[in-house]
Specification:
249 residues, 2 domains, 12 strands, Rossmann fold, single chain, 31% helix
């Protein structure tokens, strides 16, 4: 069985599956130089689109797939759905719940894209905390004339505007640290994606404490027709159910 991973939920699922002696392989995209690795066999790198993923599933006699990629990895999710539909393989989407259910979410500024978020943030403040990842930085050109604290896991490939400050760090983050960071930089607007979960949510709590407005990029829509769960425990049950079916256990 194949777990498309790179998330904390995927690592938890790999640990549960390995403990249950299920035969799985975890796949990581390879965009991070030193990724947090799950237990068990791991492959790193892309598949080469739908065709490449389909070939991999056939060659390795995969019986079931769990798409536990990041909530914003829409291209990979679409490829998994297409390949599994072509081969008639069971597919489960494991995606942590978003932050829209939080009590303070109603007061945030919700946007449909990073570029829209840049425009909203520009109207709200002059010292921006950008936490949407290095791949979206090009969309925030409207903010290049003001201070921005840019937190990423990997160093961006492009040069940053002169007034931007780069911080390389990896979660989990905690409230005290986020309060200290945002206060020390006098942050007056936070920009984030709706990644969900508790791993990086402390910045939202800190923004609430400090009265800092929050701009959120909504998640892309999930692939229709794919069964979905929100926890590794639920996904582990699904894996056990499918372990005895198909071409490979």
């Amino acid at each position: 069985m194949l777990v498309l991973g790179g998330t904390a939920e995927a690592r938890a699922l790999a640990a549960a599956a390995t403990a249950a002696e299920a035969r799985i392989v975890s796949s990581l995209a390879g965009r991070v130089s030193r990724p947090a690795l799950p237990v068990g066999p791991v492959r790193i790198g892309g598949f080469g689109g739908v065709a490449g993923l389909t070939d991999y599933l056939i060659t390795h006699r995969i019986a079931a797939v769990v798409d536990a990629t990041h909530p914003f990895a829409a291209t990979m999710s679409a490829s998994a759905a297409s390949a599994c539909a072509t081969l008639g393989l069971p597919l489960l989407r494991l995606a942590r719940a978003g932050w829209s259910g939080r009590l303070d979410a109603g007061g945030w500024h919700w946007t449909g894209s990073p570029r829209e978020a840049a425009g909203v943030a520009a109207a709200l403040g002059s010292r921006v905390f950008l936490t949407t990842g290095r791949q979206t930085l090009g969309d925030f050109q409207p903010l290049e004339d003001r201070y921005a604290l840019v937190r990423v896991v990997e160093t961006p490939l492009q040069a940053l505007p002169a007034r931007w400050e780069l911080v390389r760090d990896r979660g989990p983050y905690f409230l005290a640290g986020e309060l200290d960071l945002m206060s020390a930089r006098a942050v007056d607007v936070l920009v984030t994606k709706d990644s969900g979960g508790a791993y990086t949510s402390a910045k939202l709590d800190a923004a609430g404490r400090l009265g800092v407005p929050v701009v959120v990029v909504r998640r892309p829509p999930e692939v229709p027709g794919v069964q979905a769960v929100a926890s590794a425990a639920e996904a582990a049950v699904w894996l056990r159910r499918h372990a005895g079916r198909g071409r490979l256990r």
